[in-house]
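Researcher: Re-running this chain for the archive, since the previous output was lost when a drive failed. Same request as before.
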Amino acid sequence: MPVGECRQDGNPRLTGPGVNLQWPPMASTAVQPLAADTFIVVPAYNEARVIRGVVAGLFACAPRVVVVDDGSRDATAAEARAAGATVIQHLINRGQGAALRTGMDYALAHGAQVIVTFDSDGQHDPADLPALVGPVAGGECDVTLGSRFLGEAVNMPWIRRLVLRGGIWFTRVVSGIKVTDTHNGLRAFSRRAAEVIEVHQDQMAHASEILDELARRGLRFREVAVKVRYSDYSLQKGQRSTGSVKIVLDFLFHKLWR
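Model: Regenerated structure tokens:
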């Protein structure tokens, strides 16, 4: 298994056969490891190019990494296993919301007390995990939400920034919850929160649904400053800004008919 060295920016320097180096080498600084009952859930679809590096970076800080391969047509599952992750596979591509639900159910069934969701495309920084998990593990709140607008959004296109700002307004009006970032995949849930939050949206509207559930369930939440790093690869793989209309319609349809 490749060896990951968790550095202050969270970018692993990897060694081992077949490893695809995703980040430039930088000076290393140790990051406090997470507790053994903390599970990192990584939904992944056709991420064979980067998933091994992402998983190795997580293992440098976290003991339990679960990759949900959402019907990939490439070697995502094999690469994740090679990095040491527990891999659950969907036979067909169901969507990120469905993959998160599968991963969270697995974590709960295997004794997780804290569950973190983490994107598979290399945008998130594992060095943010201790600050994200700390308030939940310490009982200060039920959920923490990563916010790139409180932290850093490196190389974010202006159109993406504009769409996300619109999402903040939409969430405040429709769900009555005040946040500074809406569709950030970096979150931490207490066991209780993960048990009561209902995620029915299989596709990308799950992110709005989770925020709606925080308000509906009266869960205590806190935003935490995190870094999101946009690359040519992650922008190519990520949700298109034009897809925001579908997300809104999917979310509203479910909310009205729930």
